Amino acid sequence: MKIHAPISDIMTKKVITLKTTDDLETAELLFKTHNIRHIPVVNGKDIVGMLSYTDLLRISFADAVNEDDNTVESLVYNMFTIEQVMAKKLISVPPTATIKEVAEILAMREFHALPVLQERTIVGIVTTTDLIKYMLKHF
């Protein structure tokens, strides 16, 4: 296992993003359509936040919603904007950060995804799932 390999080797390069002007119903559709749990929020080319599926669950009372149901009360979603729900204080990494460095950051923090930025532009996203898959491939 190459722990000093760059994170660009395992990051997701085709990043699904949201704009600050998108609504939470759009976010829910993207989460479900692409089977993902984190979406960077951008304003133009600049990343301004990260929305997680857990963030949506917290506001939608989804614990009480049947998982087979593809809709959550749109009334609840209309009460909030993406900017109100997303995480704003982000830590990012460059594509040259090592897999070990990224694993250490994710192990010490309370989040499970990091945007990968080249200068100020998002070029990828890396999640704890990406790291686990990498480790499993090498065992």
UniProtKB/TrEMBL annotation:
Top-level taxonomic group: Bacteria
Ranges for domain CBS: 11-67, 86-139
Family annotation (SUPFAM superfamilies): CBS-domain pair (SSF54631)
Keywords, ordered alphabetically: CBS domain
Full protein name: CBS domain-containing protein
Lineage: Bacteria, Pseudomonadati, Bacteroidota, Flavobacteriia, Flavobacteriales
